[in-house]
């Protein structure tokens, strides 16, 4: 810590949508602007974020020297130049929190000072509305206290679970990419409403609220989705006819194959950065 008994200074390296959402969430969760920093390559965006949130920007070396927690939120393809800047500046006791899809903790441990604690996180875009699902995994040098720190940080923007790092590629495919699957389904259902003669605005309102309501029922009742689906499915009714068509068209199998493909791509991203 920068001061005895002080809260850690947190720097977000890469203030894109996810990085900005985390900064905003931390402020709303009670952090002070002077406890936060961010790095951003675009000067205009950097100025905009400082004006909006009152948080100072810094270069990567300066942020590394000042912060106790570094949240790495750059695209995976941008990680190598960032690590080149970070390695000479970071302290060995600084907690590294990686939000980079597919990148293993071993990459950071290999490139940063020996013993650097690293926690890998797979968040998702509902962080933008405070409803993220984030899965966290410790690296070799991360302790239970480090995991608790990361849980506290991420709790302000959604829910958090701990998983072994070996499961992170599956998490990436399921919840990291998961919002896109729901958006895809909602898009198709809205199109169906238009095909059936409804105005787009009406179809959107019907489907979006149905999605919100269904998700709330899943979260609040604790019932298995099969039970909730069967409660809507009357014998020889409209719903069972629709379900039959979904099964005939292989929707369930397509979802399984899609999520497996996303898992495989996540593995590929990680292999690019494996040690020789």
UniProtKB/TrEMBL annotation:
Q: Where is the Pyrroline-5-carboxylate reductase dimerisation domain?
A: 165-269
Pfam families, alphabetically? F420_oxidored, P5CR_dimer
Keyword Oxidoreductase attributed: yes
Matching SUPFAM superfamilies, A to Z? 6-phosphogluconate dehydrogenase C-terminal domain-like, NAD(P)-binding Rossmann-fold domains
Q: Which GO terms describe its cellular component?
A: cytoplasm
- Give the matching InterPro entries: 6-PGluconate_DH-like_C_sf, NAD(P)-bd_dom_sf, P5C_Rdtase_cat_N, P5CR-like_CS, P5CR_dimer, Pyrroline-COOH_reductase
Report domain Pyrroline-5-carboxylate reductase catalytic N-terminal positions: 10-102
GO MF: pyrroline-5-carboxylate reductase activity
Its annotated compartments are: Cytoplasm
What's one GO BP annotation on this UniProt entry? L-proline biosynthetic process
Q: What is its EC number?
A: 1.5.1.2
Q: Gene3D superfamilies in the record, alphabetically?
A: NAD(P)-binding Rossmann-like Domain (3.40.50.720), ProC C-terminal domain-like (1.10.3730.10)
Pathway listed for it is: Amino-acid biosynthesis; L-proline biosynthesis; L-proline from L-glutamate 5-semialdehyde: step 1/1
Binding locations of NADP(+) = 73-76
Q: What class of enzyme is it?
A: oxidoreductase
Which PROSITE patterns does this one have? P5CR
What keyword terms does UniProt attach to this protein?
Amino-acid biosynthesis, Cytoplasm, NADP, Oxidoreductase, Proline biosynthesis
- Recorded catalytic activity of this chain's protein: L-proline + NAD(+) = (S)-1-pyrroline-5-carboxylate + NADH + 2 H(+); L-proline + NADP(+) = (S)-1-pyrroline-5-carboxylate + NADPH + 2 H(+)
- Which NCBIfam families is this protein grouped with? proC
What does this protein do, in the record's words?
A: Catalyzes the reduction of 1-pyrroline-5-carboxylate (PCA) to L-proline.
Name the family: Belongs to the pyrroline-5-carboxylate reductase family.
Q: From the Swiss-Prot or TrEMBL record, give the protein name.
A: Pyrroline-5-carboxylate reductase
Native source organism of the sequence: Actinokineospora auranticolor
């Amino acid at each position: 810590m920068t001061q005895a008994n002080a809260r850690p200074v947190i720097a977000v390296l890469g203030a894109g949508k996810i990085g900005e959402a985390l900064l905003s969430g931390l402020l709303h969760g009670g952090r002070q602007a002077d406890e936060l920093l961010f790095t951003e390559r675009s000067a205009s965006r950097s100025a905009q974020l400082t004006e909006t949130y009152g948080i100072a920007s810094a270069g990567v070396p300066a942020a590394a020297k000042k912060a106790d927690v570094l949240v790495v939120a750059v695209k995976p393809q941008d990680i190598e130049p960032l690590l080149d800047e970070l390695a000479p500046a970071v302290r060995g006791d600084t907690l590294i929190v990686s939000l980079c899809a597919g990148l293993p903790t071993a990459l950071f441990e290999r490139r940063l000072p020996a013993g650097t604690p690293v926690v890998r996180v797979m968040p998702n875009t509902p962080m933008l509305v405070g409803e993220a699902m984030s899965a966290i995994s410790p690296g070799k040098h991360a302790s239970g206290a480090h995991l608790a720190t990361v849980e506290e940080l991420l709790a302000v923007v959604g829910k958090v679970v701990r998983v072994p790092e070996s499961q992170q590629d599956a998490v990436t495919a399921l919840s990291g990419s998961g919002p896109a699957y729901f958006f895809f389904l909602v898009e198709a259902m809205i199109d169906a409403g238009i095909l059936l003669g409804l105005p787009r605005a009406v179809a959107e309102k019907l489907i979006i609220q149905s999605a919100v309501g269904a998700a709330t029922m899943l979260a609040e009742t604790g019932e298995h989705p099969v039970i909730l689906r069967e409660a809507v499915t009357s014998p020889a009714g409209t719903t069972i006819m629709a379900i039959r068509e979904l099964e005939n068209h292989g929707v369930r199998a397509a979802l399984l194959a899609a999520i497996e493909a996303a898992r495989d791509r996540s593995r590929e991203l990680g292999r690019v950065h494996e040690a020789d």
